[in-house]
Amino acid sequence: MDDRFRALDAWLRARLDGASFRIERASTDASFRRYFRVFLDDGRTLIAMDAPPQREDSRPFVKVAGLLAEAGLNAPRILEADLDQGFLLVTDLGTRLYLQALQEGDPHPLFADAHAALVRWQSSSRPGVLPEYDEVLLRRELSLFPDWYIARHLGVTLTDRQRASLEGVFAAILARNLAERRVFVHRDFMPRNLMVSEPNPGILDFQDAVHGPVSYDVACLYRDAFLSWDEELVLDGTIRYWEKARAAKLPVPADFADFWRDVEWMGLQRHLKVLGIFARLHHRDGKRGYVEDTPRFVRYVRHAVSRYDELSPLGRLLDELEGRAPRVQYSF
């Protein structure tokens, strides 16, 4: 029992009016937030969130939870909040993750529910409500790849030629990303953050939501950090989402080929960012499990760069970093 846990326990006792309860760890994530499941005597369960205010700002969590609720989506409802201490008490969406359920049965109904929720979220979009996913933020995320994955994790100092080559690829990626139409973006809409619940899905980990490219969340859904799908399923699922988005008059391209290119280029931005984040979690924060999934993201990157001539310098750089001779075709 650390000091924050003791403070959380005392806070819960006050907020629950002395009702007896027991508490156990529910989950952690890549941030400094911790989640605890609170078991009440009447059989109900709630979730207590511990977000140290010097490390985490809980105001975006509260704000986006409200936006999701306004959109008619199933997100945790805020029951009690003490932003000064960094404590929240919210409704419990259950224990069954999409990440688990997708591997145990037919994934298509679960993905269909995720598409419907995503379209509803995006249909509620309006500018000026969430931070803009602008060039400054997109570029800052891309810089995590050379700063943390290449320099810190691989221990490689790029030559001037390599750095210029990478910057050229970054400029191409950003130009494509920024040309997209904009909607509300969850920013981590992946199976680990979706719960099998009623209504389905329950949506978690939304505090970093922004107003940005329409392809981002569907790219995130299928190019997952912890689970890989074959290309046929990814393509089929993306088409099904695109059809729902068009029917809802969301600002997706009229030609699916154009939207698919947007998805792949937006996904590439995310893959490079995640490689940097996983390396940072490992080397700076001592969270060692994430870096084990970096090969998955290298494969995602290689798959994308193999399809577009403008991205081929990134493929050559990966070959150089891995000490291999360049290949004409990259396998996924």
Structural account:
The protein is α+β, with helices and mostly antiparallel strands and 332 residues long. It has two domains: 3-91, Phosphorylase Kinase, domain 1 (2-Layer Sandwich); 98-321, Aminoglycoside phosphotransferase (APH), C-terminal lobe (Aminoglycoside 3'-phosphotransferase, Chain: A, domain 2), CATH 3.90.1200.10. It is built from eleven helices and nine strands. The strands form three sheets. Strands 1-2-3-5-4 form a five-stranded antiparallel beta sheet, with helices on one face. It has a two-stranded antiparallel ribbon with strand order 6-9. Strands 7-8 form a two-stranded antiparallel sheet. A hairpin with a 4-residue loop joins strand 2 and strand 3. Helix 6 (160-178) packs across helix 9 (256-283). It is globular, with a radius of gyration of 21 Å. The relative contact order is 0.11.
The DSSP helix count reads: 11
Helix coverage percent: 40-55%
Indicate the CATH class of the largest domain: Alpha Beta
Radius of gyration: 21 Å
SSE blueprint:
Layout: H1 3-15, E1 21-28, E2 34-40, E3 45-50, H2 59-70, E4 78-82, E5 87-91, H3 98-104, H4 107-123, H5 135-153, H6 160-178, E6 182-185, E7 194-195, E8 202-203, E9 210-213, H7 216-222, H8 231-247, H9 256-283, H10 294-305, H11 312-321
Antiparallel strand pairs: 1-2, 2-3, 3-5, 4-5, 6-9, 7-8
Helix pairs in contact: 4-8, 5-9, 6-9, 7-9, 9-10
Feature tags:
single chain; 332 residues; Phosphorylase Kinase, domain 1; Aminoglycoside 3'-phosphotransferase, Chain: A, domain 2; two-stranded antiparallel ribbon; 11 helices; 48% helix; globular
